[in-house]
Specification:
It is a single chain. This protein is an alpha/beta fold and about 350 residues long. It folds into two domains: about 5-120 and about 305-335, 2-Layer Sandwich (Nucleotidyltransferase, domain 5), CATH 3.30.420.40; about 130-300, ATPase, nucleotide binding domain (Nucleotidyltransferase, domain 5), CATH 3.30.420.40. It is about 40% helix and about 20% strand. The chain has ten helices and ten strands. It has a five-stranded mixed sheet with strand order 3-2-1-4-5, sandwiched between helices. A five-stranded mixed sheet has the order 8-7-6-9-10, with helices on both faces. The chain is globular. Bound molecules: 5'-O-[(R)-(carboxyoxy)(hydroxy)phosphoryl]adenosine and zinc ion.
Length: about 350
């Protein structure tokens, strides 16, 4: 029998301080998440300086809780993993410093993980990804279609030209008077309304996998401002439903195109916006209609947002090929996955 491998993982790229212990990249032994959302809400978004300060304050406690809940000591840990980017540099640095400290003090191999690879590998905590696979990563900072060639070989085939999907949710949420982060509430409102405004669907006809949400956002804001000026009251649930219908139409259309083209064995929906009920339902329904439908893995909502278990799952793939890093590891706020060659797109 092969030995089990336990990875201690850190995630501090934005506004959640999280530490997890993950067994064999598949099984969560613990996944402690300390969220700072309340501290940022009054500013309407994440304040980097405040985020870093909170991470420093709680990281040791979160680490101790993760070890205690998993019922392990450092002796049981086979490697230490950490998100090295992309994200807020000051926030990332706290996780990187913490992981490096443990790796040095406890003499463990260190693994630097891409945050997007983490979101995608949340799938492995539910149902193993079979390759080749395709992932739609939708979060506050990302809207990407990623071709997964193998567990350690990814390439972006489509990306947003402007706002990320979650960013658009948060911006139109503010106009609707919804607190940051607005995605969950706008999703709930959308379920109570109808698509009566028929906002634009950007780039649907384009022969690529790219996205754009700034036109939709502007159209939404103009509609609300115009109504304000003439004293007309608009139904907020219908506004939310119309916005969401446009986002889901575009995401679904491009995803289906990529699936038809690439014929992946697994499709993964990942990132904070993957918590969206409308998107989950629509993609599951549309993929079910395909003649050759891939296996669909959509992690539960608790694993869609930022958490360290997904980093531990991604790190395991690197652990297996001994993709370790030394103590010069640094945070890289704009770390990117490679883009596919022109040939593929
Ligand atoms: O992945 P994540 O936790 O952090 C980043 O890496 O960005 O994603 C956060 C984003 C926020 O923009 C939030 O509004 C959005 O995910 N979000 C949602 C939903 N739940 C969270 N967007 C749409 N529908 C949801 N149910
Ligand atoms: Zn994220």
């Amino acid at each position: 029998m092969t030995k089990d491998n336990l990875i201690l993982a850190f995630e501090t790229s934005c506004d959640e301080t999280s530490v997890a212990v993950v067994k064999n990249g598949r099984e969560i032994k613990s996944n402690i998440i300390a969220t700072q959302i309340k501290s940022h809400q009054r500013f309407g978004g994440v304040v980097p300086e405040v985020a870093s300060r909170h991470h420093i304050e709680v990281i040791t406690q979160v680490l101790n809780e993760a070890l205690a809940e998993a019922d392990v000591t450092y002796d049981d840990i086979d490697a230490v993993a950490v998100t090295k980017g992309p994200g807020l540099v000051g926030a990332l640095l706290i996780g990187v410093a913490a992981a490096k400290s443990v790796a040095l003090a406890e003499n463990k191999p260190l693994i630097g993980v891409n945050h997007i690879a983490g979101h995608i590998n949340a799938a492995n905590l539910i149902d193993p990804i079979e390759y080749p696979a395709l992932a739609l990563v939708v979060s506050g900072g990302h809207t990407e279609l990623v071709n997964l060639i193998s567990p350690t070989d990814f390439e972006i085939i489509g990306d947003t030209r402007d706002d990320a999907a979650g960013e658009a949710y948060d911006k139109i949420g503010r106009v609707l008077g919804v607190q940051y982060p607005a995605g969950k509430k706008v999703d709930e409102m959308a379920h109570l309304g109808q698509d009566t405004f028929h906002f634009p669907r950007a780039m649907m006809e384009d022969n690529d996998y790219d996205f754009s949400f700034s036109g939709l956002k502007s159209s939404f804001i103009n509609t609300v401002h115009h109504a304000d000026q003439i004293g007309e009251e608009l139904d907020k649930n219908d506004l939310a439903a119309s916005f969401q219908a446009s986002v889901i139409d575009v995401l679904t259309h491009k995803t289906l195109r990529a699936i038809r083209e690439l014929q992946p064995k697994t499709f993964v929906l990942a990132g904070g916006v993957a918590a969206n009920q409308g998107l989950r339902e629509r993609l599951t329904a549309e993929l079910g209609k395909l003649a050759h439908s891939p296996k669909v893995v959509i992690p539960p909502v608790r694993l869609c947002g930022d958490n360290a278990a997904m980093i531990g799952a991604a790190a395991y793939n690197q652990f297996m090929v001994e993709d370790f890093t030394d103590l010069t590891l640094n945070a890289d706020p704009s770390l990117e996955l490679p883009y596919a060659s022109e040939m593929l797109v």
